[in-house]
Design a protein that fits this description.
By secondary structure, the chain is mainly α. Helices cover 83% and strands 0% of the residues.
Length: 87
């Protein structure tokens, strides 16, 4: 454990941020799984509505610094392509 006051604070802040980032990443995974399930069920309307919700959550995670911008783009692109396979 750190002895210096500022170092102790950094440890606490890092722990708080880690928990927050973990929760946001988990939420993103949940939304992506919903899109994948809708595509697997071949329900285009549901897949498109889930895609819209998932994109919003992924982009919010990117704006909060949880994901890099390129990671956000890649995730959105992959699930969009998945939904577009339904015709």
């Amino acid at each position: 454990m750190a002895n210096i006051k500022s170092a102790k604070k950094r440890v606490q802040v890092a722990a708080i941020r880690t928990e927050r980032n973990k929760a946001i990443r988990s939420e993103v995974k949940t939304y992506v799984k919903r899109v994948e399930a809708a595509v697997e069920a071949k329900d285009k309307a549901l897949a498109e509505s889930e895609l819209k919700a998932a994109v919003k959550v992924i982009e919010m995670a990117g704006s909060k610094g949880v994901y890099h911008d390129n990671t956000v783009s890649r995730k959105v692109s992959r699930i969009s392509k998945l939904v577009n396979t339904l015709a």
